[in-house]
């Protein structure tokens, strides 16, 4: 039976360095000598691609190399399950993880690498008031527990990243860089990464993302026009940005991916059209006059304004006839299109027709989509009927008033203000629907008040299939003297909850799920979430004390951390073996012991005592259960090492299992 210890590679997060070396060796085996890279040979193999100048283009700052190393350093932490804080623990496919997102992202890589379709983050904007703490290269788990007040910090000061700091931008860059590196590896090949930011760090964040994703994978910058400030002295700055990147933009283009979203307020227009049609008994001139009066009610910057171009009306609905029928960029085909009245060829657009053949053009004519002029001297126009073409590409400038998002959140919390400057869940819902499909996973590792999860739940109202979410939020301590913390602090204190931001995130998720169900009595999709909390591994790390080495050795006889439950151990086993944390887990009593399995591929018996008299029944029971499940892959069994009362019990169990086809029999 193989004993797994804290230092075992199988029981840590993904080792990027080892993985990168494996890939590099597969590509350039000649560059490896006795397991080491010969950089001179590698340079020769890469030829002119190698950059050898001292001055290179790109963003550099003090600590960049160390920040990159942080991303590559495996985590020895774990995620402890908290069913009591969760909603629908047994059935949900969603996750809410409380912890430092740097360590959490490392831990998620084995289970979710290449599986996340959309990542959205709203990170600290670094305005001088944000909570940005320094990571600790030596022991980031201990650092995290100290910073968040979960262990004695010995006077460690927790503060915002003030502008007076000599490392103001550097600290923020060092915090962001390793997290972005890890996030990229979680995305699917056709995945997207979105990040909100304002003027404070937009230039630096763009440079960071160009570095991490490659500038060739930049898609666009969305601009959100949120409000106007009449008290501004120079300019009224009422906008924020959202940077949009692809995991692999070329893959998207070659795959023919086309993104489309419903046009703004089309359903509202349809209701008005139906009202006017009935009112005027299909008198289209009167219906058109009514629509123009309706359009006149739109205010400046109203997102419905593009609808006002649809001024003509018939039984198919409002339409326009000014679409250009020519080939984009020029060089399109030129053929004769006879005018339906004169019979003579119509004027061909200067760039040629958009349709490749006259036969294809005839299809559009038959559908009534080509509008001819009074004679052949006018180039025909193309009809667009709003109800028949209600999908469009999303614009890069979006009107989203901050006051509405604040009001929506207050409404969710019974009129109480609990969070400053929340993002609009309506805006995020629109993006989630635009850039992901049912069944996809959406990740936000700066979850804040939980807007992204709320948006995912709302997007699931329309379909039978669920999008899933993974939220990660630091249990950031709240300071009642900090103005931006005050409303959250007051709400949590009044509610009797722990005074950290992650508590608000969980409460928002509970309320959002309840509201989605209340708004739609037939809604049967997933509004639950499993809560996990970042902690040091269940396996003790060897920490020799030269002053009392004997005691250290005695303490390490059972190298599991005291107080950890069977469920704690089980989920660390799943996590470190790359199993989805929402996978169905079956349990069965065998020989008086609880045995868990995930699909018959992984079995775990983590009770505290296994005596020789039950080993045979226990082992054979596991064998029979595997036969029932008949998994396609090999099966592994994991036990608690200290549970075996002697070596005979351990050896007997191992031998029986291996005789019946179990390849791996391990212990913790």
Rounded average pLDDT: 88
Number of helices, counting only DSSP H or I runs of 4 residues or more = 20
> What percentage of the residues does DSSP assign to strands (E)?
15-25%
Give the CATH topology of the largest domain. Rossmann fold
Work out the radius of gyration: 31 Å
CATH superfamily name of the largest domain? Vaccinia Virus protein VP39
Shape by Cα distribution: globular
Distance between the termini: 10 Å
How many domains is the backbone divided into? 4
CATH architecture descriptor name of the largest domain: 3-Layer(aba) Sandwich
Tell me the total number of β-strands. Answer: 24
The helix content is 25-40%
Strand order of the largest sheet: 4-19-5-18-17-6-7-9-8-16
CATH class of the largest domain: Alpha Beta
Low-pLDDT runs: none
**Structural class given helices, strands, pairing?**
alpha/beta
